[in-house]
Amino acid sequence: MSASSDPPSRDPGSTQPRPSEEPSAAEPLPLPEPVSSPSPAEPSLRDAGRALSSALRREGSTRWQAVRSGIAKRRPSSRTAAVAGASATGPDSGMPSTQSRPRRRKAPGSRAIRRGWRLFIGALLCLGLGVTGTLVALWLTMRDLPLSDVLPPAAEPTLLIRTADGEVLTTRGAYRAPYTALDEMPPHLIEAVIAIEDQRFREHDGVDWRGISRALFRNLSAGGVVEGGSTITQQLVKILYLGPERTLSRKLQEAVLATTLERQLAKERILELYLNSVYLGSGAYGAPAAAETYYGKEIGELSLPEAALLAASIQSPSRVNPISDLGGAQNRAALVLTVMEDQGRIDEATRDQALAQLAVLAPEPQPSRAGSYFGDWVLEEAVSLESAGSQGLTATATLDLELQAEAERIVREVMADQGAAVGASQAALVAMTPNGRVRAMVGGLDYGESQFNRATDALRQPGSTFKLFVYMAALILGASPDSTISDAPIEIDGWEPRNFGGQSHGTVTLRDAFTHSYNQATVRLAQEVGVDNIVSVARRFGIEAELKPTPSLALGTSEVTLLDMTEAYAAMALGRTPVNATGIEALRFGEDDALGVTGTNDREQTRLTRTRDPMLGMLRAVVSEGTGREATVQGLRVAGKTGTSQDSRDAWFIGFGGGMVIGVWVGNDDNSPMDEVTGGGLPAEIFRRVMQAARDDGPARVAPAPARAEGPQCDIRACSAAYQSFRAEDCTYQPYEGPRRICTR
């Protein structure tokens, strides 16, 4: 078919050829040979246009796919080449052959621009994911926070032991003094804490973003942490709720709770809670507790330098405080004072004066506080009771602070005056009521140098004080004080005990043998009574230490503690066995009322009947005419016994009278012998002076007697026989508890 001279009509689906691919105007428009034909008839012009349009579409699709696959620069695929050849340059197409289209040259910076856009878009995606993740994490961590009730939780259980007059004796665990209102705290303490911990406390809303930025800059400049960014409110949140853990979620919680706290509580309330809660080292939680711990003062009595030292301890309380590192604490306190002056909280003159005082300021020496040895001992007793309560245990101690102070003073004086001359370096004392209430305890000469309690923990040979059980066993078996025994020399399996001084006394009464502490007579009596019976009596009186059933047991060669032996003599004074010593008078859990007085004995007691009076008579004879005359107290019927171990390694005196039982031991920690020290020497003197102090410091008033007719107030003979503490001049006696009473017999 011949070509028409008119331009062909354009099919709507056809594609306009690119200018570079158009044939010249003189050439006829080539038409592709139809791919298929419904009939052998020659194809129409419309069919040819459709075929051309389809081929061009296929070629364009192939090029787009190549670009997407990053192979746009490659040569066309075989399929594309075939289509192109079939549609444009085939020998039967009627179109002339043309050269390939030249490639477009890309701008030199296009690759860098595309890479930059990719990085920018990636950064935006990461930022969006980070913000989304942070919001999700914040939501997850906020779900369980106590936002509805921002109040301090209950304090951790604490064991607190106080004396009867309320003075703190000792604590276990955290010590928190009674809660103190902000207006009862000195203003310079408040300003010192704000200056060094949170100078914008009164301005921010819980989180100080400016302070965080400043701290970050200073820490980066210093190459380490020199300043923190937490506000007082944030610190309080950590104290009350979150603890010291440092994680992103914790910091988010801290920030949210801090702002919540600021909305719910006034600044003054937040500061008050903080100052009553912050840890300041040495077991002291809160400024009131720290003031008492470091200076023995009420918080309102703190001076500016003392307040600066407390504020200085907040940063590193366990490492830098007035006790653990006074020098470090003073250096930081000087910084506190300088910062206060820089911020206008004090003037320069006040700062200089405080710095001068700070240089010589030291914490008050912790008193070998009347009762330190006692405090350690009673703490062990109270620990077993602590688990019974979850609100903390407060125990009222049996200690008499005045008697304790006097006992410590007397022991130190006697040992300082006479101890060195006779080779004695240590002493111990226990004073208790007959029912076991411990009123004083001295475990050694200096608690600061040695915390070993020689009154409760040292096992020493009791010497002749152990003879109480030998003679009680004889009385139980039917002997009497007037029964006789030979004091002649005796030998048992090669062992030959000797009397002090080396003399023998022939046949003597049990009373004389006990009064003058004859060893030979006592060993012979023990052989007649039986060592097993002696051990049985000692157990009945509460002695739990190991007792070796040997002949020498009668002379006190098995080691016991001073506390155990004093309990045994308390049983004699009480008339019932055994007596268990206690240092706790009453208990209280949390804020509950007192649970009552603790039981003194957890074992069934046995009343001493016919054997007690004869034994009391022999014990009194020891003081009135025997080895214990040095223990005589004017106006008081004292009963007791001396004891001296072999080579004077231990010297004892234990006695009672006037409602008080006192045991004294003197010796050396290394068990070295003393120079002829006996129980009737230094121990008896200490006993006498402490017993006199107990009488002088005891209740001065006399309980009123029942109304009665004029005349004699009492039957002196009957009262004297009934009460060993009886005083004829005023017809009074001293019961185990309370003031003296008038005898009505």
TrEMBL record:
SUPFAM superfamilies: beta-lactamase/transpeptidase-like (SSF56601), Lysozyme-like (SSF53955). InterPro entries: BA14K, Beta-lactam/transpept-like, Glyco_trans_51, Glycosyltr_51/Transpeptidase, Lysozyme-like_dom_sf, PBP_transglycosylase, PCN-bd_Tpept. Gene3D superfamilies: Biosynthetic peptidoglycan transglycosylase-like, DD-peptidase/beta-lactamase superfamily. It comes from the Bacteria. Residues 1-18 have a biased composition (Polar residues). It holds the Pfam family Transgly. It catalyses: Preferential cleavage: (Ac)2-L-Lys-D-Ala-|-D-Ala. Also transpeptidation of peptidyl-alanyl moieties that are N-acyl substituents of D-alanine; [GlcNAc-(1->4)-Mur2Ac(oyl-L-Ala-gamma-D-Glu-L-Lys-D-Ala-D-Ala)](n)-di-trans,octa-cis-undecaprenyl diphosphate + beta-D-GlcNAc-(1->4)-Mur2Ac(oyl-L-Ala-gamma-D-Glu-L-Lys-D-Ala-D-Ala)-di-trans,octa-cis-undecaprenyl diphosphate = [GlcNAc-(1->4)-Mur2Ac(oyl-L-Ala-gamma-D-Glu-L-Lys-D-Ala-D-Ala)](n+1)-di-trans,octa-cis-undecaprenyl diphosphate + di-trans,octa-cis-undecaprenyl diphosphate + H(+). GO terms for biological process: cell wall organization; peptidoglycan biosynthetic process; proteolysis; regulation of cell shape. Has immunoglobulin-binding and hemagglutination properties, and can bind to mannose. Essential for virulence. May be involved in LPS biosynthesis or polysaccharide transport. This is Lectin-like protein BA14k. It comes from Rubellimicrobium rubrum.
